[in-house]
Every structure is written in structure tokens, then in C-alpha cells.
Write a structure and sequence with these properties.
It contains 14 helices and eleven strands. The longest helix has 27 residues.
């Protein structure tokens, strides 16, 4: 199948498939593996010190000659250093999230970078386009990690964003196989961003205990919570139960901050503490049943995409005959 479209041309990649830049899970090993397989790999900078990010960028360059990106949450305290590193190391594509796209888009574009911003609403998609981004990621309520407060599902959000902006739209949230990829593109997306499925890849920097817990997760084992701080979708575990009990007691913002403390996500996802750690993952975790090499995941998704598209075309042909 010819998968070339304006998104693949924008990024210089084979497939309109982007790996999400997830904290503690997406280092240079995963980013380079996805890029080598034909997608767009992303280094998640939100969990990295500036010198660590530079090291990951250099290792990614050594491992692939294909385009890759860096994701930078705009709430990150060392964002100035991160952006300087990205420019100095000549990273071609930057994904920004969790903040105002106007703050950095112009400066990055002036340096010749392709800029993509993650949004969870039509309002912010329009703001991102006005700021000059090259594309937006429309991330629905199903997504893992930090999420939008609107709780708009991917099925609803993608067509609304598609109708609101002219730039390419990348669908995210609840996409882990080729059927969901096809559905998102039928809704108007130019491509998809996949996160949770790549957490359970061999190259993911997530702890093996976390990967195994995601594989074991069943339907309905995640909840979006902590909206007073920053909305995050968590896999149910003893720490999540503590959060639930705090809400039942009427805990305020300061109480929730104290309960969350520091480095909860690192403890859970990177160090494998399944009891006291914060386990960020999407709703689609209930459908993930194995840990595979990233290239095998890309290959499977594209095969499923082609098969689903062929079935849809055949069904349409039967109905029209």
C-alpha cells in the first residue's frame, strides 16, 4: 500500500505512524527503532536532565539515519536548556505539549525546525495553528499519561479538530492497532500517534515489571485523576487507591500535592515499584497482550491497517453492487 501523504512528506518518513514521547519510557533505543521501522520515533525529554537529553539525541543519531523528534513538555523547568540542546544537536522535529505553543513555535521555526503541538481541544488546536505549528496531535481522553481536562474522546475530538484547522492532524488516544489507525484516518486524521503499545516494546525504557503489569491489565483498570494538579490516567494499584481514598476524604489541592510527592512516575514506570509508583498508561492497555520489538509493532500495525482497509473496501464494493 502507498502510505505517502502530507504527514509522511512533512516528516520524511515511510508510514504516517508516530511513537509518542512518553516520560520514562521513550529514550533513544525506542525512538531509533521506530524510525528505522518507517515511523517517527520520539525521545521523551520530560524525564531527562539537559545533559541526559543530549546523550540520548547523540545515541539516536548514531543508531538511525532516519528522521526522529524530541517531545518537550512546556512545563519542564529546564526548557530553555532543552530547546538549546535540540537546536545545537540539529534535531529536525520538535513536539511540544502541556503549555502555550506561542512560547516556542516561532523561535523553533526560525531555526528551521518542524514543530508539532499536542492538544486536547478544538480551542487549543486553533491556537496552535495561529502560533505557526506545522501539525497538531489531537489527543483524546483515552490517552495515557497527562491528559486534557475536557475528557473529549478521540472519536469526537479528531473530526472536530480536522474541521477547525488546515494543518495536518495526528490522532492520539486509544490507538494500538491498525484497525484504530484506519478509523482515525477515516475521521480525518493524516496519521496517528501511538503511546501505550510502545510502552510494551522491547526497546522501551520502562521497567520490565511495569511492562508486565500493563500486559496483565484488563478492561477498565485505568482512571483519569488528579485534575487539580495535572490530569493523568493511572493504572489501578495501591498508590491509585490512596488517591481515591484522599478524594473520598475531601482532600484539597495541597493534600493531593503532598500525597503525590516527587518522582512517583519514575518509581512506578522506570524503577518498577508497582505498589507506591505512579503507573501512567492509556485505556487501551486492556487490549495489549504482549511485549514485542518496536519494529514488529510497526509491522503489525501497518499489516492490520492494510487488512482493515481491504475489508472496508470489499464491504463497500458489495453494498454498491
Amino acid at each position: 500500500m502507498d502510505t505517502e501523504n502530507r504527514l509522511t512528506r512533512l516528516f520524511g518518513i515511510r508510514y504516517p505512524l508516530v511513537q509518542a514521547g512518553m516520560i520514562w519510557c521513550s529514550g533513544w533505543e525506542l525512538a531509533s527503532a521506530v524510525s528505522n521501522a518507517g515511523g517517527l520515533g520520539i525521545i521523551g525529554a520530560g524525564s531527562m536532565y539537559p545533559d541526559v537529553l543530549r546523550d540520548h539525541i547523540r545515541k539516536c543519531k548514531a543508531a538511525t539515519d532516519r528522521p526522529f523528534a524530541v517531545n518537550v513538555p512546556m512545563l519542564y523547568p529546564s526548557i530553555e536548556e532543552h530547546m538549546a540542546t535540540i537546536v545545537e544537536e540539529d534535531v529536525p522535529i520538535v513536539f511540544t505539549s502541556a503549555g502555550n505553543p506561542a512560547a516556542w513555535t516561532g523561535r523553533l521555526k526560525d531555526k528551521g525546525r518542524t514543530v508539532v503541538h499536542v492538544v486536547s481541544s478544538v480551542k487549543f488546536a486553533r491556537k496552535a495553528e495561529q502560533a505557526g505549528v506545522d501539525a497538531v496531535v489531537a489527543e483524546g481522553f483515552e490517552a495515557g499519561g497527562h491528559n486534557g481536562r475536557e475528557e473529549t474522546t478521540t472519536l469526537v475530538l479528531v473530526p472536530m479538530v480536522r474541521d477547525a484547522v488546515q494543518v495536518p492532524v495526528i490522532a492520539a488516544g486509544g490507538i494500538a492497532d491498525g484497525r484504530a489507525m484506519l478509523a482515525a484516518m477515516c475521521l480525518g486524521a493524516d496519521g496517528v500517534q501511538v503511546g501505550s503499545r510502545f510502552v510494551c516494546s522491547v526497546e522501551s525504557s520502562a521497567h520490565q515489571a511495569f511492562k508486565d503489569r500493563v500486559v496483565a491489565a484488563g478492561e477498565g483498570e485505568t482512571t483519569l485523576t488528579l485534575k487539580e494538579l495535572a490530569p493523568v490516567r493511572l493504572l489501578h494499584n495501591p498508590f491509585f487507591q490512596q488517591v481515591r481514598e484522599a478524594y473520598a476524604r475531601g482532600a484539597g489541592t495541597e493534600d493531593l500535592k503532598a500525597l503525590l510527592g516527587r518522582a512517583r512516575a519514575k518509581r512506578g514506570m522506570f524503577e518498577g515499584d508497582l505498589v507506591e509508583g505512579e503507573l501512567e498508561i492509556g485505556q487501551v492497555s486492556g487490549a495489549i497482550v504482549d511485549v514485542l520489538p518496536a519494529a514488529a509493532i510497526v509491522e503489525r500495525i501497518m499489516r492490520e491497517f492494510n487488512e482493515a482497509r481491504d475489508r472496508l473496501c470489499q464491504a463497500s464494493s458489495v453494498r454498491s453492487s
